[in-house]
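User: I've been going back and forth on whether these two constructs are worth ordering. Before I decide, could you fold them both?

Assistant: Sure. I'll take them in the order you sent them. The first construct and its structure tokens:
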Amino acid sequence: MNSISPKHIHLLGICGTGMAALAGILKEQGYGVTGSDEHAYPPMSTFLEGLGIAVQNGYGPENLEPRPDLAVVGNVIRRDNPEAQALLNTDIPRLSLPEALNRFLVGERQSLVVAGTHGKTTTTALIAWLLYVLGLDPGFMVGGIARNFQANYRVGQGPYVVLEGDEYDTAFFDKRPKFVHFRPRVAVLTSIEFDHADIYTDLDHVIRAFASYLETVAPDGQILAWGDAPLVLQVCRRAPAPVSFYGVSPDCHWQAVNIIPASGGMKFTALKEGRPWGEFFLPMLGAHNVWNGLAAIAALAELGAEPGALQEALAGFQGVHKRQEVAGEFKGIIVLQDFAHHPTAVAVTLQAVRQGYPERRLVAVFEPRTNTSRRRIFQAPYAAAFKDADLILVREPPDLWKVEPEEQFSSRQLVADLERQGQTARYFPDTDQLLAGLLPLLRPGDLVLVMSNGDFDHLVPRLGEALGG
């Protein structure tokens, strides 16, 4: 592959977040880019159109004409996809998304990779921002829109590339996790919990995947791992590279102490090997974001950054789209949106928002949309996750038919469990009925937290419009 210099690159599954970013990276580097997808619609179709990239709506052999020099196959593409079948019957070279990122974005540069069940998107965006403010002109690829850049990628010309390491599988021809394809100079591991029940059979399977991630770090590289999590400690015992832990434990190499909620964020002191290293303010709520910030600080320190330069940079971080993002305030009602979907993420997000807005009634609106949250495996944990909410509205999981009946998550059961605990909860079969049921319940002073890993049928803008925004 290294001897090939492709001019025309075709992307199968181009409208995925990562694939669309790759399209932008390739276009910026001067390649001719085409792509195909089953559902080409805004905002990705508009984004790609703005780049001048032609997108074929639907898959078929005809999309490989004119013949590309290289094809990149997204992990949404199944082996029986007609375009994939046509590709397999040619000698057109093919790459997966992470292989393409290695080749076209990382190249000879050093990579910093962030992996973990929770926090990896925010931590990746934080590291990229800190590198940028320090004048190191980084490239990056992150699984959300970094608001400082208004993009989820950047090519950059500096010596470092920051990548979000995804544990999901690579492609139909490579079922390994995406993150095993990177060779990080610095590898961050934020957490390990069970997730992605559609590809992982149990927790041991997940643990083995993260162990394989750490095996990709060169012996002279560095691992930074959250030291307050037993599973992380367990996996790191077998790591081939040096490990530094960060967290609250006094055993951690990097420790956050004096954690104080402040207006719009969190203040904390970073200790290095037990000694004060710097005082920081992170404009995000919640202790979980302090760990994300501490991981980013430790990663930059590993590259030689000093605390003074990082203090101002950290304070200027604007976050990631749909991570505690304020959508607006309408008639005294604040609307926030967050990506939270795993029970742990739901719990820590609600806790953070409760801490940041103690005087407001907290209305949690939840869509169990992921392949895992549509399954019963988290039925009980979800009931415990909403303890900080005053009012909870839950819709029926979309596309529940994709899950075997005996494995299906029950939103009705969740609401019944919450009510049994003495909480006020409401069930709705779809988003339209949820919105209609939500509006009469709201009053000035409320805070509505909308949680979903998708667009929730455009619930947030529809709610803002209905409230007079």
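The second construct, handled the same way:
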Amino acid sequence: MTVHNSTDALTAEMLTVGAAAREAARAMREASGEAKTKALMVAAAAIRSRAAEILEANKGDIEAAKAANMPANMIDRLALNDARIEAMAAGVEVVAALPDPVGRELARWSRPNGLDIARVATPIGVIGIIYESRPNVTADAGALTLKSGNVAILRGGSDSIRSSGAIQKAMADGLRAAGLPETAIQVVKSTDRAAVGMMLEGLNGAVDLIIPRGGKGLTGRVINEARVPVLAHLEGLCHVFIHAKADLEKARSISLNAKMRRTSICGAAETLLLDRAILKSHGVPVLEDLVKAGCEIRGDEAVRAVFPSAKLATEEDWKTEYLDAIIAVRVVDGLEQAIQHIEQYGSHHTDSIVTEDATAAEAFMNSVDSAIVLWNASTQFADGGEFGMGAEIGIGTGKMHARGPVGAEQLTTFKYVVRGTGQTRP
């Protein structure tokens, strides 16, 4: 951990980090798939062999968090143990086993003048990743950027600074063993919030992309202050729509899982839309299941008419990402009204329809403008691991680059490779 006495010292340190990252970017761009795989496999082994060191560092973070009266649920997110370290190492191995996303030929064609044109996947370059609490993000983000031929500047939360530093050493072991620059994965050592501001300004042109991973406060700051491109989602206001032709058991199990499996993740359902035609037959059993699981229901007047224990929902409830055991419930008159509600209040993250009507399902998936749309499946599948991507760095909800889970493949851009035989333009 670094404490600075002057802005000049911090500026010098951060610019050094940026310059080293930019220098490492070419080596990573040229790295072979074999070298990247070796680096990741050695890094995974190093996470295991350095487990005692990582746990000792984490112990320091936990003690500091308790002294600062951090809430118990946040301490749990911060804490590491043998099982979590093994999961971290195994996750790095999964990323290592993925196909190399760099160098993929995305398209190829020839022109009448004989020019051969190919669109080829390439690394983005230097990616600044700003995250909170969970130290395992250090391994996930490091692994994904390494696999995709990028360079990472990682700035974790000040509460996990010791743990992140220890994990970075294991990632550096892998880079060194593969003959790749250790500066390809750097952790910012300063806990000064000004370091984040410097990253958002681009470190004198070194940073190509910023990815925030954390709550609305962090993401909002990044989006508002960044002077370089940002890949992020501000919130996960996810919906489950139970259509008139829904199967009752699917409606019950999907609704319960989408809300209550883990309430604190961005893929948790926050609003339940019930078709008026099945309000009593399906809606009431679904709401009973949620209440039995400890969920608070906030419903409109139609919901309260059949389920009086529900609290009356306000306009604000349709706009709220609770990240808690609370769900807003609204009755809609069919598919079109459900789509209109999602269009008005949703965050373009993840939305699901439960129905046995294939035509209605296809219409929903075509019309709902979200990064992830599902048919007869829980919104909690909004996760890179569940998509077979190994790990993820976040869920993108923008439209200019990656949408949905951001894995190694999504951390690439492309260039055009044009092969000629002496052509000149008339």
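Notes on the second construct follow. The first strand starts at residue 105 and ends at 110. The mean pLDDT is 94.
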